[in-house]
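Support request, please re-run this one:
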Amino acid sequence: MAYYYVYLIFINKNGFVKIAFVANTSWNIFNFRHNLIIGLLDKGHEIICVAPVDEFTVEIQKLPITFIPITIHAKGNNPFTDFLLLKQLTKIYKNLKPDMIFQYTIKPNIYGTFAARIAGIPTINTVTGLGTVFLHNNIVSKVAQKLYALSFRYARFVVFQNEEDKQLFIQKKIVDASKTHVIRGSGVDTTIFKAGASHLDETIFRFVMAARLIFDKGIAEYAAASKQLHTIFGESVECILIGAVDSDKNLGIRKEDLNTWVVQNKLIYKSFSKQIVSEYQHATAVVLPSYREGLSKSLLEAASCSKPLIATNVAGCKDIVVDGKNGFLCEPKDIQDLFLKMKEMVQLPKGRLNDMGNYSRQLVEENFSDKIIFNDYFCLINRIVTKETK
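Re-run finished. Output below.
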């Protein structure tokens, strides 16, 4: 099947546009927005990145962009610190005067939109997943939803990564349907994320899970399934977990639990790797038993590397895993179902695993490559520049 990509040219008085990217961590911009930023730079547009300083800031600064450090208490809910964030963003937006602002993660989406309204700058907000705001029903969640509804009145466009999240926001009257768009993820560079040497002839079946170390990713279920698999297959199976320890006291996996799983459940833990493509290439299959996703980047990257997948039957995962074609779907929060699907995959013939991997790659090439995602975002940018609203 042939695909043709139309890259739109949009012009202001300088011939190009100035775009600000704002998120609650430099890691978020580097890990999820890097490809889009490169695509925009290649077209000659000016990019500003606004985020807190962390270990990935230096990676962003290697690009020909302007980096503006900011303080964001991503997990806090103190009204005073949030007001200070609003002041910070308003000052930055007024001083830099970008033509438009791309905002990601909860606090930039909320307070950044208020700030952009004050500064008179249009925003494209992206909801990358529902996260704790919708997965947990408490007072903080209810306040956050109200703030979303207030701020999204002023966003030019609100982008979702799957149809279910979009419909939920519309049904809850958080956003007007006319502003919404679905853009499926942040794009995968298929020239980087590609199949390596086959490992199907190895005696070890290697599962890999790459995720933030929070319970909502299904890490406890993965650890429990690892223990059950080792009682059957022994050392012929490896269950590898890759991710950074999360500081969230309520949702993050404690180091003590992680250490226990390593010893008792035979889980192999590795810290987050910037060379994640190599980890996928050495995997036999990739697993993500998440409770919900926007559109899982780890599954997309693994699929692009021609890997069979196992994921939960939830939004943001089932968009990538076609049950029985390129992997298996299991029920969320169900250890036994996850274990059975992993066991079934271990017992599949090598030819079937190879077919699943090929289907994964085809799925990414036809639906999720960075070229497709770039074009979707470029269309929205062009609409802002030409002042279209519909």
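The longest helix spans residues 79-96. The radius of gyration is 21 Å.
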